[in-house]
């Protein structure tokens, strides 16, 4: 894997969140100054403003068919923006910090503090849940789009749009706040990163959990490979890689990826077997996640890296830097060797 080109876009303020269009030719951004916009990569990367949230924009998500941009902000509203149609604003209350479209595009889930609400494509409400005492940390839909996992410090709730009560609730007993969460492709596992330097992996069918300790620092980000064969966990200046099978961890021993010299702040999967990791010093590393977890490259980006989002086609990645710096890199993957 190698970087073949990169484009730098200066945003009006730092990006709280970015989201790729299904075609991988556009990136939507939610900026701290309230701007919600789209960057078109095929006509010279520049930001086209679409909407504005007073107080700041916190979340952005693009519908699976690519026709609708949803945004959430400090003003407590959710905006739906569609080409050729008036903007729709819904909700009022706490700041909306997380959005997730269902894979079918029928529903949009929105987290605002302890409140989780569901909305239909036309902007009409489809249910609400407030039965928790702590904020929702992350949202993850199942592949069918009928069930969503909502993670908070006190419990993991499985919820359905239009249903007032949770389908199931799994209490959590972690020593500190949950800082990161990621559901494995296929939904067999839910990985959680904690303030106390541990990570937990919950088996969704049995409710059993596996604990990983001694990771070296707060676990701020984690991610799965697309085939769920490996879990990558960032803690301090290291990345720990654990192998998994379909039903259980293949080993409880981590492979440590040690190239970073500063705290790792972001992980992102690109394509079927590659990962990018970024640190507080603004250094971006590329990794081949094959059998040996090989290091591919190391490049400076010019600003501390806050987030990394790989494009759906696996050929690009959006690197969110502090101070409004957004770098779009195009990547070249080596062709697998053919057996003779």
How would you characterize this protein structure?
This protein has 340 residues and is mainly β. It is 0% helix and 54% strand. The chain contains no helices and 32 strands. The protein has strands spanning 2-10, 15-20, 26-31, 35-40, 47-52, 57-62, 68-73, 78-82, 88-90, 98-101, 107-112, 115-120, 125-129, 136-141, 148-152, 155-159, 168-171, 178-183, 189-194, 199-203, 209-212, 219-224, 230-235, 238-243, 255-257, 264-270, 274-279, 283-288, 294-300, 305-310, 316-321, 325-332. Strands 1-32-31-30 form a four-stranded antiparallel sheet, with no helix packed on it. A four-stranded antiparallel sheet has the order 2-3-4-5, with no helix packed on it. Strands 6-7-8-9 form a four-stranded antiparallel sheet, with no helix packed on it. It starts with a strand and ends in an 8-residue tail after the last strand.
């Amino acid at each position: 894997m190698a970087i073949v080109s990169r484009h730098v876009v200066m945003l009006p303020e730092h990006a709280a969140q970015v989201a790729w269009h299904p075609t991988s030719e556009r990136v939507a951004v939610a900026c701290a100054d309230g701007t919600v916009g789209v960057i078109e990569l095929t006509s010279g990367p520049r930001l086209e403003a679409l909407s504005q949230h007073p107080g700041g924009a916190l979340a952005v998500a693009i519908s699976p068919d690519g026709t609708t941009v949803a945004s959430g902000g400090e003003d407590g509203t959710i905006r739906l923006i569609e080409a050729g149609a008036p903007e729709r604003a819904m909700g009022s209350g706490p700041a909306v910090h997380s959005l997730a479209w269902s894979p079918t595009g029928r529903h949009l889930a929105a987290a605002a503090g302890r409140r989780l609400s569901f909305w239909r494509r036309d902007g009409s409400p489809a249910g609400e849940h407030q039965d928790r005492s702590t904020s929702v940390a992350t949202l993850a839909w199942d592949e069918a789009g009928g069930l969503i996992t909502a993670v908070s410090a006190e419990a993991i709730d499985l919820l359905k749009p239009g249903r007032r009560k949770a389908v199931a609730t799994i209490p959590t007993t972690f020593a500190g706040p949950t800082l990161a969460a990621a559901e494995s492709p296929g939904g067999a596992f839910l990985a959680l990163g904690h303030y106390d330097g541990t990570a937990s992996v919950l088996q969704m069918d049995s409710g059993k959990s596996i604990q990983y300790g001694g990771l070296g620092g707060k676990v701020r980000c984690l991610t799965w490979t697309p085939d769920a064969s490996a879990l990558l966990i960032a803690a301090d200046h290291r990345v720990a890689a654990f192998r998994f099978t379909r039903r259980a961890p293949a080993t409880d021993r981590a492979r440590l990826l040690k190239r970073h010299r500063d705290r790792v702040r972001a992980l992102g999967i690109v394509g079927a077997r590659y990962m990018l990791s970024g640190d507080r010093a603004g250094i971006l590393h590329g990794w081949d996640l094959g059998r040996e977890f090989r290091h591919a490259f190391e490049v400076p980006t010019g600003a501390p890296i806050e987030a990394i989002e790989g494009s759906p086609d696996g050929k690009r990645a959006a690197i969110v830097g502090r101070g409004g710096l957004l770098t779009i890199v195009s990547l070249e993957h080596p062709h697998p060797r053919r057996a003779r």
